[in-house]
Amino acid sequence: MISDTPLLDPAGLTRLVDGLVEHGWCVAEGFIDPALCRALQHELTDLAARDALRDAGIGRGEAHELRRDIRGDAIHWLNRESLPQRQYLSAMNSLQHALNIELYLGLFEFEAHFAHYPPGSFYQKHVDSFRGRANRVVSTVLYLNSDWPDDGGGEMAIFDPSEPGHELTRIRPEAGTFVCFLSETVPHEVLPTRLPRASIAGWFRRNASLNGLVDPAS
Ligand SMILES: O=C(O)CCC(=O)C(=O)O
Ligand SMILES: [Fe+2]
């Protein structure tokens, strides 16, 4: 049973926002209610069984291409179709308010997708937003894998923005662990996973129009 008010504990929210301000990234274990994580994980399993996941590519719009040598996940965009999705999006809405109040970021939209990384897959080191196109401002990842073993692989490595060769930390994709970081500056990588790996990757965006054209959400 998912409670009506799992959402976010105010102290946890403050710690997360403070970490983001201080370091540009932050990790919070147990950030999202375990029952909600399980429900989201079941939904992803069900989407996979119904063939509703699509291989993820890189680049936006016309530049979009499939590059399995760069990223190997299959995705499904959240669209509010289920209660667990709506609850997660509501939690992200609270985070968006906190970020706007504390950091004056002017975030106006959150987009997110389920991601399934099959065994052997990875996502090479990258940043989530190109400088000069300030569309994605803050990146988020929630992991959905309960009892992830030490030798499961699939950690996310975070690198120093001012020294991208220097790894700062590795995060195990354990259910409930939530990571957020500045999209334009923090290089990160998904190391090859040994087991099927489930997550939700999301981005807070600012309105970015280029030559009068509004940048599409996806
Ligand atoms: O799943 C992760 O740990 C990170 C995924 C990621 O970097 C992305 O989708 O841009
Ligand atoms: Fe990323």
Polypeptide structure, described:
The chain is α+β, with helices and mostly antiparallel strands and 218 residues long. The chain has helices at residues 10-23, 34-49, 83-103; strands at residues 25-28, 54-55, 74-77, 109-117, 123-126, 136-143, 156-160, 163-171, 178-182, 188-190, 197-205, 209-210, 213-214. It has one domain (29-56, 70-205): Sandwich (Jelly Rolls). The strands form three sheets. Strands 1-9-6-11-4-3-2 form a seven-stranded antiparallel beta sheet, with helices on one face. The chain has a four-stranded antiparallel beta sheet with strand order 5-10-7-8, with no helix packed on it. A two-stranded antiparallel sheet has the order 12-13. α1 (10-23) packs across α3 (83-103) and α2 crosses α3 (83-103). The model has no long low-confidence stretch (mean pLDDT 90). Fe (ii) ion is lined by residues 126, 128, 139, 188.
- CATH arch. level architecture: Sandwich
Strand line-up in the sheet with most strands:
1-9-6-11-4-3-2
CATH superfamily: q2cbj1_9rhob like domain
- Our measurement of the CA-to-CA distance between the termini, rounded to an integer number of angstroms, reads 32 Å
Q: CATH topology, what is it called?
A: Jelly Rolls
Q: Write down the overall geometry.
A: globular
Q: What is the CATH C-level name?
A: Mainly Beta
Number of domains: 1
What low-confidence regions span 5 or more consecutive residues with pLDDT below 50?
none
> Could you tell me the number of beta strands?
13
The bound ligands are: 2-oxoglutaric acid, fe (ii) ion
Along the chain, the helix and strand elements come as HEHEEHEEEEEEEEEE
Strand content is 25-35%
Class by alpha and beta content: alpha+beta
- SS summary, helix count: 3
Main sheet attributes: strand count, strand direction, barrel closure: 7 strands, antiparallel
Mean of the pLDDT scores? Answer: 90
In angstroms, what is the radius of gyration?
A: 16 Å
